[in-house]
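Posting this for the archive.
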Amino acid sequence: MPWLTLLSAVVGAVIATSSAALLDRFRWRRERHDRLLGVRRSLYGDYLACLSEARNAFRSLARDLDATATARERTARDGFAACYGARYQMSITASQEVYEASETAFRRLRDVRDLAAAGAAPDDAAYEEGRIRYEDALTGLRAAMRRDLGSDRTTPPSAPGG
């Protein structure tokens, strides 16, 4: 029964090769997912930093009551310019939930920019309302980012040693 031995060897080789191929496929998919998460984590951090820098520029602009209308408009436009590039990156890389939340935050911050450019002071009701709407949108964006990255904590971390 040499053919039985040969058949056993062939079946064993097929199983081993198939198992190796399947494991390689799983490994490739996991590595691809890990790379995507890394890219998204970096992009999300960059986008939040960009929004923060723009927000700080608008805060300073709203406090500068001596700036001319032309200077206010230019400063507001320049303070927001970098956000457009990051916005486009978000549109092609972020998950749908994060992209939608990023668009909401972007639009709310653009509203704050427009108010600051128009001469609103920090204590103006419209400026305060715009700032609150932006902060709410930003909170929603950060929550969506944490969910997408799998870092949303639903339970508190365990105590050390416990």
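The two ends are 61 Å apart (CA to CA). Confidence is low (pLDDT under 50) at residues 155-162.
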